[in-house]
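User: Sequence in, structure out. Go.
Assistant: Echoing your sequence, followed by the structure tokens.
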Amino acid sequence: WHKKLISLRRTKAPLQNFIKEDCRAEAISEQAFLFVRKAEGREEKLVCLFNLSEVAVDFQLPEWLRTGNKVLDSKDAQWLQEGVQQNAHPAVIENDTRLAILPLSVVVYSL
């Protein structure tokens, strides 16, 4: 998991941008939030959805969010203990649709 995070840091432009104005966080619920980080001088964004609760959180994706492709999901099989069955988040998200953010998870989409 940590090696994948380091790899993303090296390869994704939004994670190489340290301008605070290009980062934004929004509460989804008391235990879930959205974090957006934009690449400096470009439209590329990473959207991170965090659910810190033990139940799924239903979330209406905002209109400004265009099609996003999943780059990291803590609920993908490769990150779970052997024998643990869990659904993963969708590979692609579209704006203005509903998404269930799985319990105790983080998922990252590239826009």
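User: And one key feature?
Assistant: Helices lie at 2-11.
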